[in-house]
Design brief:
By secondary structure, the chain is α+β, with helices and mostly antiparallel strands. Among the domains are: about 120 residues, Phosphatidylinositol 3-kinase Catalytic Subunit, Chain A, domain 1 (Ubiquitin-like (UB roll), Roll); about 90 residues, Roll (Ubiquitin-like (UB roll)), CATH 3.10.20.90; about 90 residues, Phosphatidylinositol 3-kinase Catalytic Subunit, Chain A, domain 1 (Ubiquitin-like (UB roll), Roll); about 80 residues, Roll (Ubiquitin-like (UB roll)), CATH 3.10.20.90; about 100 residues, Roll (Ubiquitin-like (UB roll)), CATH 3.10.20; about 120 residues, Phosphatidylinositol 3-kinase Catalytic Subunit, Chain A, domain 1 (Ubiquitin-like (UB roll)), CATH 3.10.20. About 20% of the residues lie in helices and about 25% in strands. It has 28 helices and 56 strands. The strands form 14 sheets. Strands 1, 6, 11, 14, 15, 16, 20, 21 and 22 form a 9-stranded mixed beta sheet that branches. α12 packs across α13 and α12 packs across α17. The N terminus is likely disordered. Keywords: Hydrolase, Protease, Thiol protease, Ubl conjugation pathway. It is an enzyme of class 3 (hydrolase). Belongs to the peptidase C19 family.
């Protein structure tokens, strides 16, 4: 019905297997990964084949279907080797299914490929990238199989397993005549809309009758007239396997669009179909079916992803949970005492007593990890040292081979009798190897797995209930008759009834995979090391250089990076038979000066991975002291730098010539810069430095004489930097006398001057040639001449830069050069009437009010010594305003009214005002110096504080006066206090900055509007700053002075009533917590919670505080912070996430930082997992808010497109055409004719 509507959703597909960010030489040649701990194989997604993978896994885990397909041999189906022969009748689809099922059973790979199978379907790459409906695929695949198996013993395979019949009957009420019609089915389609579950749907389909009466009579053939009748349907024949397709996708004929029904739809794990069958006299077991597969669709009707929950009937997989796998399997209660599990001696003896006594040391570490769930390095290395060293120290118990690669237990252990050892080891191993809950093969404990393409994870039976409803919900249900019993030999036996030729093929493929993995493992763990032999090098000019050639001095060695440094040293000893004395291995690197030795490698017990040796590393082999009798400086501090040193040449008369000599020199990084004089045999002079990237005379910097004792590294010099030595008595620089140091002329060497004098001119703008040293006066005079303007403008005009928005900026003084005026070549200037301000004058922009529109600013030139009061008078006079209730504010960097100019007698120069600044004329007189004028607001959050409500309105605490800020509220959204903030303006308080917060509260209580509230004392008020019309910063200390809060002149305060007095310290954080109401998308009223952050701002600390506050187990709560601007909830890391993140840095767990930025007043949603176990924190109000935001953004986008259309006269769809949805395509499988 829906064709290819379901585009694949890749949000759940990991890109780890693409090796993103990894650098492996043979990544493309790596064999497929082996199976994971479940021992089950997934199926790789070809791009859009998740629906196919889910159905194939269901068929594979239907043993009767799988074995029936296996029973068809090559004599009936043909052979894949003959598929290209023209006359051969090869039934490719069944053969490829057989091969795929054999791979899923036996091939040791994480995921199988369906490429060969889809090729047999006749699908192209486009078809494999297009997703279809799995219900449609189920019918088409069965039809293709039936066609492919015609003429074989499996011709009735589909009918035998899945075919059933339905009988529809109409019974005449008059003559009792029964008219019936029989229908065949392979799957039953059941309704989801307005139905509570599967049994409810079956009841309405096969139990309830449809009555024909009144205007809807039935024509009876026997009575030959319209009569009353009853229509019903029953299941006549039940197949061994029953498939239900759920009608999740429907069409809304009102909106004319498809939609997915995500309502709750229950289905039982075991169902009795007896009430729905025509014959009901048989035993109940004949009608009982067990659920064994659920195909799940995640997403909407236009996109999504399929995966499947499957019951492992034959117990082929390892049903073990990840948490069980990661936790130690050792049960401490079963041991005689807790010291045994902490005793590495007992653990290692127990592991070695398993199976073969002699095992490689590396495998011993792996077995230890499997048995106790933690590696040797993590649990024992700190106290016992490396594993090999521990085995060596206990040679009376463990026997190491000569090369220390294998280990075994000594037969005659002197610590205790052999029988005691064997008995204790067996008891310990029983604990170590005991299966976790769920691994026991009990009939009452079914094994369910979630198979999601390549990934296979165990799940519990109760997890199926999560797929009853939501965007990720059940789409197809598969049941099998309870009477179907599997033979004992099939249990946990993947080779059961697999044909011999497929067994041989899979065995050969597994051997080939093992060989490939061994080769790949060797390739990936081997790397190249370049050995530089000390005797073949000599030290001169600050670095190491080969005596003969690089080829003879360096040896390439391929080595396993899993081996230790001691193993590497031993291998080099064996290679260098001539070596005598100590051998030191050091990391070396090539620098421009030569080879330099950095760190010395130590710790022979460490692997090369642990000491971070990289592929292609250069290793210097020496005695650690000298090379060729010369002591070698080592380390990054003394890294040699190759510098270009320039100094004047001298004649034979020792007179300096006007020519520079450029010679390379090598200096250690930690040497003083003054050592250049000694290296160049120059007694004294001036040193100038130039970085490696800089070019030209202007990039040279002189080194002060007091800095000559600084090192080259401290001065920032690097390889390739240049140093110039110049005679201190020579005033003329030699830089410009050498042609190679003069930079080329800039490509742009002009300025554009526009005529803005409103005079008639032949030219509107001209280009004036200039350099950075050109004086602005010269440019202005040239512009006046070339624009052919009146000579009078030469005395009464100025140049003003024009920004990218066309705004005229502050005039440029005539005596400035272009460099001093910070003008770039190619920029535009406006020639304007009026003189530029002098050096003692300021050019200011000003406007009235804080809402400044572009182009409405006025301009004024004043002396920089004028006072703020006089400047205000001049601006008021120019604006045509009067009165003394005005003040000035400086516009800040974000074009808003900033701090007020409070000191009216101060000069503009003293307040650091400069030309080009913008001042705003704001109505209202400023308070005296040292006083604040604070607007006071009343803040009443929704909550249980009803007794502090207004006397005028005891039933409703919201206000409708003009002085109220309130967010838009949504009806029928219970208890969503986080979305509503009400602030009522009470009045202004003028108070000294030296007053305390308590005095501010007292003064606020004297406001006339405050008389409506019954507050006992200021201690029952909580003070907040107002930011973005919401409570912002909490002012917590009652006796702290307002000056210490640094409130500023524009701060506004809101007061919140309290039920009791509070005393918050600096480490306390006040949070609004709301408990989620079970079964509703709503929250209870907010409750204040005080969190002590003295132990850190960690999620764990917060979770403990919330759990203690609500008297809930800490692992049974979930917390999320509300983001009111986005109508979203940001979950705080859960208990399990905290455990997995312990090894990360602390700052990543700080809730003060990103992305939480937790602060006072934030709203937290609390979810009790004991009554509600989902990850949805949102409410109905949030949905409405997000929809409004989307609608607003869409409207804004449309308005912008409309403006663009008006300005460019181009259709709106021309620039950003909407991407059309792909056409619906039918699903088909191409099958040859075998009749």
């Amino acid at each position: 019905m829906f064709g290819d509507l379901f585009e694949e959703d890749y949000s759940s597909v990991s890109d780890d297997h693409y090796g993103k960010g990894k650098k492996l030489k043979t990544k493309a040649l790596e064999p497929p990964a082996p199976r994971e701990f479940t021992n089950l194989s997934g199926i790789r997604n070809q791009g859009g084949t998740c629906y196919l993978n889910s159905l194939l896994q269901t068929l594979h885990f239907t043993p009767e279907f799988r074995e029936a397909l296996f029973s068809l041999g090559p004599e009936e189906l043909g052979s894949l080797e003959d598929k290209d022969k023209p006359d051969a009748k090869v039934r490719i689809i069944p053969l490829q299914l057989q091969r795929l099922f054999a791979q899923l059973l036996l091939l040791d790979q994480e995921a199988a490929s369906t490429t060969d199978l889809t090729d047999s379907f006749g699908w192209t790459s486009d078809e494999e990238m297009r997703q279809h409906d799995v219900q449609e695929l189920n019918r088409i695949l069965f039809s293709a199989l039936e066609t492919s198996l015609v003429g074989t013993s499996g011709h009735d395979l589909i009918n035998r397993l899945y075919h059933g019949t339905i009988v529809n009957q109409i019974v005449c009420k008059e003559c009792k005549n029964v008219s019936e019609k029989q229908e065949d089915f392979l799957d039953l389609t059941v309704a989801v809309r307005n139905v509570s579950g599967l049994e409810d749907a079956l009841w309405s389909m096969y139990v309830e009758e449809e009555v024909f009466d009144y205007d809807n009579l039935y024509h009876c053939g026997t009575c030959d007239r319209l009569v009353k009748a009853a229509k019903s349907a029953k299941l006549r024949k039940l197949p061994p396997f029953l498939t239900f397709s759920l009608l999740r996708f429907n069409f809304d004929f009102v909106k004319c669009e498809r939609y997915k029904d995500t309502s709750c739809y229950t289905f039982p794990l075991r169902i009795n179909l007896k009430p729905f069958c025509e014959q009901s006299e048989l035993d109940d077991l004949e009608y009982t079916y067990d659920l064994f597969s659920v195909i799940i669709h995640k997403g909407g009707c236009y996109g999504g992803h399929y995966h499947v929950y499957i019951k492992d009937v034959d117990h082929l997989g390892n049903w073990q949970f990840q948490e069980d796998k990661s936790n130690p399997d050792v049960n401490l209660e079963d041991l005689q005492n807790e010291e045994e599990i902490d005793d590495p001696l007992m653990i290692l003896k127990a592991v070695l007593s398993q199976g073969s006594n002699l095992i490689p040391v590396d495998q011993l570490g792996q077995k230890l990890l499997r048995n106790i769930g933690i590696s040797w390095n993590k649990k024992y290395r700190k106290q016992c040292g490396p594993l090999r060293k521990f085995l060596q120290l206990h040679s009376q118990i463990f026997l190491l081979s000569s090369d220390e690669s294998t280990v075994s237990l000594l037969k005659d252990c002197s610590l205790q009798g052999e029988s005691d050892i064997r008995r204790n080891d067996q008891q310990l191993l029983k604990t170590l190897t005991s299966e976790p809950p769920g691994l026991n093969d009990r009939p009452s404990c079914p094994h369910w797995f979630d198979i999601n393409d390549s990934k296979v994870q165990p799940i519990k039976e109760k997890d199926i209930e999560q797929q009853f409803q939501g965007k990720e919900s059940a789409y197809m249900l598969f049941y099998r008759k309870s009477q179907l019993q599997r033979p004992p030999e099939a249990r946990a036996n993947p080779r059961h009834r697999v044909p011999c030729h497929l067994l041989n093929e899979m065995d050969a493929a597994n051997i080939e995979l093992q060989i490939q993995r061994a080769e790949c493992d060797s390739t990936n763990n081997n790397f190249e090391l370049h050995l530089h032999l000390g005797p073949h090098y000599r030290f001169f000019n600050g670095a190491l250089h080969p005596v003969v050639s690089q080829t003879e001095s360096m040896w390439d060695l391929t080595f396993d990076k899993r081996k230790t440094l001691g193993d590497l040293r031993q291998s080099i000893f064996q290679l260098l038979e001539f070596w005598e004395g100590d051998m030191v291995l050091s990391v070396a690197k090539f620098v421009p000066a030569g080879l330099h030795v950095y760190q010395t490698l130590d710790g022979d017990h460490l692997t090369l991975c642990e000491i971070e040796i990289a592929d292609g590393e250069d290793i210097f082999v020496w005695n650690g002291v000298e090379v060729g009798g010369v002591q070698i400086p080592a380390g990054s501090d003394c890294e040699p730098l190759l510098l270009n040193v320039l100094h004047p040449a001298t004649s034979s008369e020792e007179e300096q010539c006007q020519q520079l000599i450029d010679s390379p020199h090598v200096f250690p990084s930690n040497a003083e810069i003054g050592s250049v004089f000694t290296a160049c045999a120059i007694p004294d002079g001036v040193i100038l430095v130039n970085s490696a990237e800089s070019v030209g005379a202007e990039s040279w910097t002189a080194i002060p004489r007091e800095d000559l004792k600084k090192t080259f590294r401290e001065q920032g010099l690097r390889n390739g930097s240049s140093i110039l030595i110049q005679d201190s008595n020579d005033g003329n620089s030699l830089l410009t006398k050498q042609g190679k140091w003069i930079t080329s002329v800039n490509e742009i060497d002009w300025l554009q001057v526009k005529n803005l004098c409103q005079l008639d001119s032949e030219e509107e703008h001209v280009k004036i040639s200039a350099t950075l040293t050109t004086v602005v006066f010269d440019i202005r005079i040239k512009a006046v001449k070339e624009l052919k303007l009146m000579k009078e403008l030469a005395e009464d005009s100025c140049l003003r830069p024009i920004d990218r928005n066309g705004k005229l900026l502050c005039p440029v003084p005539d005596n400035y050069t272009l460099k001093e005026a910070e003008l770039k070549m190619g920029s535009s200037l406006g020639l304007c009437p009026g003189r530029a301000p002098t050096s003692s004058q300021l050019f200011l922009f000003f406007a009235v009010g804080s809402d400044v529109q572009p182009g409405t600013e006025m301009e004024i030139i004043v002396e920089e010594t004028i006072s703020v009061r006089d400047c205000l008078k001049v601006m008021l006079e120019k604006s045509g305003l009067s009165g003394d209730a005005w003040h000035l504010r400086k516009m800040d960097w974000c074009y808003e009214a900033g701090e007020a100019l409070c000191e009216e007698d101060a000069a503009l120069k003293e307040l650091m005002l400069s030309s080009g600044d913008t001042l705003l004329l704001i109505e209202g007189k400023l308070p005296p110096l040292g006083f604040l004028k604070v607007p006071i607001w009343w803040y009443q959050p929704r909550g249980p504080l009803h007794h502090w409500k207004s006397h005028q309105d005891q039933t409703n605490c919201t206000f409708s006066q003009g002085g109220v800020w309130r967010a838009n509220s949504i009806q029928d959204a219970p208890s969503d206090a986080h979305a509503e903030v009400s602030l009522r303006y009470l009045g202004d308080v003028e108070i000294s900055e030296d007053a305390t917060l308590g005095e501010l509260k007292c003064q606020a209580m004297t406001l006339p509007s405050f008389s409506e509230f019954s507050i006992p004392s200021p201690a029952f008020l909580r003070a907040w700053t107002v930011e973005s019309r919401r409570p912002g910063r909490l002012l917590r200390v009652h006796y702290q002075r307002l000056r210490e809060y640094k409130l500023g002149q524009r701060t506004e305060i809101c007061l919140e009533p309290l039920q009791k007095e509070e005393n918050l310290g600096p480490q306390h954080v006040l949070l609004r917590t709301q408990m989620r109401l079970p079964g509703k998308r709503a929250y209870a009223l907010p409750v204040d919670l005080v969190w002590d952050t003295a132990r850190g701002w960690t999620a764990g600390s917060l979770r403990h505080r919330v759990a203690d506050f609500y008297s809930l187990p800490v692992e049974k709560i979930e917390i999320a912070k509300y983001l009111p601007e986005k109508f979203e909830w940001l979950p705080v890391p859960g208990w399990k996430q905290q455990i997995t993140k312990r090894r990360k840095k602390k700052k990543q767990d700080n809730l003060q930082g990103a992305p939480y930025h937790l602060k006072d007043g934030d709203t937290l949603g609390i979810k009790n997992l004991l009554v509600e176990d989902d990850d949805d924190f949102s409410t109905v109000r949030d949905d409405i808010g997000r929809e409004k935001q989307k609608a607003f953004a869409l409207g804004k986008k449309k308005s912008q497109e409309a403006l663009r259309v008006q300005s460019s006269d181009v259709p709106s769809g021309a620039e950003t055409p909407a991407r059309p949805r792909g056409p619906e395509a039918s699903l088909s499988i191409h099958v040859g004719s075998f009749r």
